[in-house]
Amino acid sequence: MTEIPKPARRAGHGEDTIYWDAAKNRFVGAVSLGWAPNGKRRRPKVYGKTKTEVRTKIRDLKKELQGGVRSPANYTVTEAVNDWLERGLKGRDESTVGKNRTLADKHLIPYIGKTKVKDLSADDVDDWLEDRSEWLATRSLRDVLAVLRRSIAHAQRRDKAVRNVALLVTVPEGRPGRPSKALNLEQAKAVLAAARGSRLFAYLVLSLLGGVRTEEARPLAWDHVFLSVQAGTPPHVAVWRSVRKHGETKTRKSRRTIALPKQVVDVLEEHLRWQKQERASKGTEWSPTGLVFTTRSGEPLDAANVRRDFRAITKKAGLAPEWTPRELRHSFVSLLSDHGIPLERIALLVGHSSQATTEAVYRKQLRPVITQGAEAMDEIFTAGEPDAIGD
Length: 391
Known about the structure:
By secondary structure, this protein is mainly alpha-helical.
């Protein structure tokens, strides 16, 4: 006698159920979570081609619920990144936000942006980085991975992601970046000669002979420039500000006071006389910002102004066009090193000093003004000539 199969047991109240949905051509799994505050039944569903797949998804769903996190089913990497850029970077510089936005729009969203955060795997991230390594330098790969990591972390804090798979991968080796260069002495003199008479001349002299970062030179005010000997202290500049948020220098160690070479003092004195004449001719149209370096209308310089004018100067000096203003600082270090100045003294001049020295500078210059760089630069650029700059 043939045994009649027993009908499938109907799931009890609150139990998981798995059934076939002919309209969707999929198995459906449902979990009962009681009732929502609005009176509607909370019964999330998962779908799969097989019952085994559905059971796995139900198990993963329960793990999320036990951890207090319920990843939205359709929450994508693009949404996570946009949420972080809009809400996770409040108070940051516009340039910082813009940099991260550019990295995301060019190298992240077009490649893995459509992936759901809950489905993103470490292998997906590895494959994406390997693909981008043919186009980006290692530093840029680190930056774009940081965008993904912080975006998912932001989603985790808002219960939109369970784990951050981007933390499980390492950055591959990217394409070689353009190495920074340094001007040799003849190139440096050619650049200064080409800049003579331009608005950027004093700016370049201070950067090249003083080791001041371009981001430190742009916000430099005359109140922080001392062109005469005062109480036995030689002419010096107080590098205490930058264009970064709240005027902070790149690091606490970057805040320093350095002596000025005589040739820099001469150029700045000439620059001050010229600026006063221009300001008088402008009258009320001139913006009295108190800055050492400004545009023709008296407004602060921006990085684009400096890069554009510097390219024109290097071209006039007969150099290749890829030189950048920040490489004047590399040149400062290289020229001092070639002149025999110990590396530890150079580090002090460029703001990489010890904590004790940094604290001394913060305390309104309790120690003598750092003079070694000024003395060396006077020797390097004079070299027996009465006026080596611009000749």
